[in-house]
Amino acid sequence: MDPLTLSLLVPPVSGVACLLAWNSPAWRKFCGVAGMAALLASALWLMADVSANGIRVLAVGNWPAPFGIVMVADLTAAIMVLVTAITGLAVAVYSLAEIDEGREKHGYFAFLHFMLFGVCGAFLTGDIFNMFVWFEVMLISSFVLMALGGERPQLEGAVKYVVLNLISSAFFLAACGILYAKLGTLNLADLAVRARELADPALLTVTASLFLVAFGLKAGIFPLYFWLPASYHTPPVAVSAVFAGLLTKVGVYALIRVFTLVFDQDIGFTHSLLLVLAGLTMVTGVLGAVVQYDFRRLLSFHIISQIGYMILGLALFTPLALAGAVFYIFHHIIVKANLFLISGVAHKLGGTFDLKKLGGLYRSAPLVAILFFIPAMSLGGIPPLSGFFAKFAVVKASLAGDSVHGTAAAFLAAVALAVGLLTLFSMTKIWAEAFWKKAPSDSPPPRRMAAREAALLLGPIAGLAAITLAIGFAPEFFFSFAERAAGQLLDPREYIRAVTGEAP
Amino acid sequence: MELVLAITIGALFAAAAYLLLRRSIVKLVLGIALLSQAVNLVILTAPGLRVGASPFVPGDSTALAPGAADPLPQALILTAIVISFGVLAFSLALFQRADKSVGSDDLDDLKNTDA
C-alpha cells in the first residue's frame, strides 16, 4: 500500500462505513470523524513521501500512461490533499455539535466523505477526462449536502448552485472533447508534450478559453461568480465552511494545473486575460463584501476577492508568484473555513447572522472573540499572521517586473493592496458590529453553551487558528514547500518524466 | 456529415441557451438536458467521423492505423451520458422540491437568497 492509493481509498471506505452504520448514530459519528483522522494521517504520509522521494505516480489497472488513467501526486497536489484533510477533520468534529439529528440520519457524514473523495481525486488525477469525473463525484455529493434538510432558502440556493455548476460541467466536457480532437490524448503529461510540439497554437488558445470558463465558474472568478454569494450562506454552517474552504479552490487548482502544464504556449494572451480577471475578481468581490451586513454573505464575497489573489499569482507566472499562489491557497482554505465556523458560533450565541442584530460578544464570549480575531486579521493581511506572508509574496512578485506583463503587473500590486485594505475594513466591521459594540437593547440575552457543545465547536476553530499562527510564525518552513511546488509547476519536465517515463 | 452534425450541435446549444434563460423551472431542466446532449455530440464529432472504418490497432503497433475509427470518444460519451443522467434525475427531484416549497415555478420567485 502506498500513500497515494491510501489517500484515495480512505474517503470512500469511511463514507461506505457511515452508510453501513445506518441504524447507529454513534457509529456513524465515529466513522465520520475517524475517517477524517485517517485521511489526515494518510495525507501527511503522502506529503512526507512526495517531499522526500519526488512525484509519485499510480497507473490505475497497471495500464501504462498515456493509455490508462494515471493518478499523480506532485507537491502541489500533495499540499492540496493535506489541506483538504485538515479542513475535513475540523468540519467533521464541528458537525458533531452543529448538524441536527435529521440531517445526520440522512447521510450527512457519508456525503461529506464522498465529497472529499471527489476533491482528493480531482487534486490527484493526471488525466483531464478523469478530472471531469472527479468533479462530478464532488459535485453530486455537494448538491446533496447543499439541499439536505430541505429548508426553503437551501432549496433556492441549491437551484442556482446546481444549474450553474452543470453549465460549467458542460463547458468542461466540451473542452475535453475539443482538446482530444486537437491533440489526440487525454493524459495531462502527454497533452503537455504534444501541445509543445504543436506548430500553430491558435486553436489550443481557444480551447484554453473554454477551460477558463469551465474552471472559472467553479472557482468563482469575475464575471462568473454570481451563484456563490447566492447559495453559500444557505446550508448549515459546517457545510458552508467546507464549501467555502475547499470547493472553489478545486477550480483554482484545476486552473493552475492546466494553465501551467498544457496551456503555456501563448501566455501573452491567456495569462494576460487571467491577469485582468484576477484584478476584476479582487475588486468586485471585496466591494460586494463591504456593503453586506449578513455574517456569512460578507464572508462569501470575501472568498471571491481572495480567489483573485490566487489567480493573480497564476497570471504572473513567475516562480515567486506561483509559490505565492500555492501558499495563498493553503492559508486561505484554513482561514476561510475557520471564519465560517466562527460565524456559526456567533449565530449560536446571538441567535442571528445579521451583524446589525448581533453585538456584545466580546463581553459575553471573549474566547470566541479572540478566536475570530486571529483568522480575521490573517485574512486582512496583518503581520505576523499567515495572510500577510501570502499577500506579501503575491504583491512582491507583481512588483518584481520579471513577468511577461511588465508594468501592468505593478498596477495589479496596487489593486491587491487596496483590496487588502478594504478586506481589513470589512473584517473590522464584523469585529465592531458582532463583538465590540453593545448588544442591541431588543436582542435576547446571550445563550450559554454546554461544555461538550463548546468543546466540539471551539476545538476545531482553535486548531485551525493554531495552524494560522504556526504559518505566521514559521512562514519560511511552509513557504519552502510552496516554492518547491511552484518549481515543479513551472518546469513540467519532472512531471512528464514521472508519468511517461521518458525525458521530454 | 460533419457539417450536418455541426449545424445540429449549434441548434442544440442555441435551444439549450434559450431554455436556460426562460423563467420556467421546467424549461430549465429541459435546457440542461439539451445542453448535455449537445456536448455529447461535440465529443463525437470533434475528433472526426469515419464511416465504415474499424477501430482496431494493428498487432505490432500501439497506435491506431491512419483512417481507422477512434473508439475513445464513444467511451467518453458513455461515461458522460451516465453522469448526466444521474445529475438530471437529481436536479428533477431538487426542482420539484423547490417548486413545492416556494409555491411557484417562476425562477424570479427564487431570488430571496440572492445577495
Summarize the structure in words.
The complex is a heterodimer of chains A (504) and B (115). Chain A is an all-alpha fold. Chain A has 21 helices and 2 strands. Chain A has a two-stranded antiparallel ribbon with strand order 1-2. Chain A is globular. By secondary structure, chain B is mainly α. Helix content of chain B is 63%, strand content 0%. Chain B has 3 helices and no strands. Classes of the chains: A mainly alpha (504), B mainly alpha (115).
Rg from Cα of chain B: 20 Å
| H-E order of chain B | HHH
Oligomer: heterodimer
Count of all domains of chain A = 2
Helix content percent band of chain A: over 70%
Number of alpha- plus pi-helical segments of chain A: 21
Unreliable sequence segments of chain B: none
Produce a short descriptive summary:
The complex is a heterodimer of chains A (504) and B (115). Chain A has 504 residues and is mainly α.
Task: Supply database-style keywords.
heterodimer, A: 504 residues, mainly alpha, 2 domains, two-stranded antiparallel ribbon, 2 strands, B: 115 residues, 0% strand, elongated
Which SSEs are present, and which pair or pack?
The complex is a heterodimer of chains A (504) and B (115).
Chain A: H1 3-20, H2 25-53, E1 56-59, E2 70-73, H3 75-98, H4 101-105, H5 108-124, H6 128-147, H7 152-183, H8 188-197, H9 202-219, H10 227-231, H11 237-261, H12 267-290, H13 295-316, H14 319-350, H15 361-364, H16 366-380, H17 386-400, H18 407-436, H19 451-473, H20 475-490, H21 493-500
Antiparallel strand pairs in A: 1-2
Helix pairs in contact in A: 1-2, 1-5, 2-3, 2-5, 3-5, 3-11, 3-14, 3-19, 5-6, 6-7, 7-9, 8-21, 9-11, 11-13, 11-14, 12-13, 12-18, 13-14, 13-17, 13-18, 14-16, 14-17, 14-19, 14-20, 16-18, 16-19, 17-18, 17-19, 19-20
Chain B: H1 2-21, H2 25-45, H3 72-102
Helix pairs in contact in B: 1-2, 2-3
